[in-house]
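Exercise 7. Given the components listed, write out the predicted structure of the assembled complex. Treat all entries as one system.
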Amino acid sequence: MNGSCSERERLLKDISIIDFTLVELNEYLDTHPFDAQAMEYFNHYARIKNQMMLDFSSRYYPLTTDTSMDKKEWNWTLAPMPWENAADPYPLACETPPMQPRNNTGKGGYR
Amino acid sequence: MWSYERRLQFPVNIKNPNAKLAQAIMSQYGGPDGEMGASMRYLSQRYATPYREVAGVLTDIGTEELAHLEMVAAIVHQLTRNLSMEEIEKCGFAPYYTDHTVGIWPQAAGGIPFNACEFQSKGDVITDLFEDMAAEQKARTTYDNILRLIDDPDVCEPIKFLRQREVVHFQRFGEALRITQDRLNEKNFYAFNPGFDTVADCGCNN
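Answer.
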């Protein structure tokens, strides 16, 4: 499961770009519900995003529960959370070594 | 109903911790013009508009604000990772650290806790939409103030993205206000509250 980090980041960024287009079109269409060209754009990018979400799930882990693939373990909960730095390694939770306690003794503190 | 996507709306990958900056940026989590107030404001105001387009704008912008709330939390979280006790004391982060360690908690930059009084839900669609437009500008000004405090490009890029969204949302709320006013008496928009005074004719008054 420890695939290339940069490839995963690149795919996540591509999904963000397509989804940003959809968010913009969605909010625009809310106040312009009869703009046929905007609707055409929306439908076009919505199809692309759906495919990208499925591709990401099959290669890495699901970004939504409804794109979860038939695998042995529930990758939805083992996968990294969005606030983890993408530059960090991202082993699934079951592969993570046990946490070491922080050692702050002797550093700063009110003495 | 909501569903969750396990990714940020815009990537946040900060290399260097900075507790001083975290203290300023957390205002956009739980401060007077922050994303928590924004999302709760729009999602709460939806019920008072008789117009579906306006309810749609409030729903979708309110939802996007939840994504922004998560981005701001990610920025504050990454800015406070791996802090030493010396840095916490030196950067003036000790008061926050005392109560929350480096957990995320909604408060303003000055330490005032989040409060529902940061926003209104007045039950009058025109009143609410004017507040929403002002709220977007106040949040935009706050992001401008934050940008003047930043010299780290890792922090600058997501904050610039969030600032730009305030500008777009101001535009959408302006259109929602126009839609509302177009359907009211043009000579006196404030003659009545369309969410309260106009009752749908159900036939029972005949």
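Discussion: The mean pLDDT of chain B is 94. Chain B touches chain A at residues 3-15, 53, 56-57, 60-61, 64, 70, 73-74, 77-78, 81, 84-86, 88-89, 168-169, 172, 175-176, 179 (CB under 8 Å).
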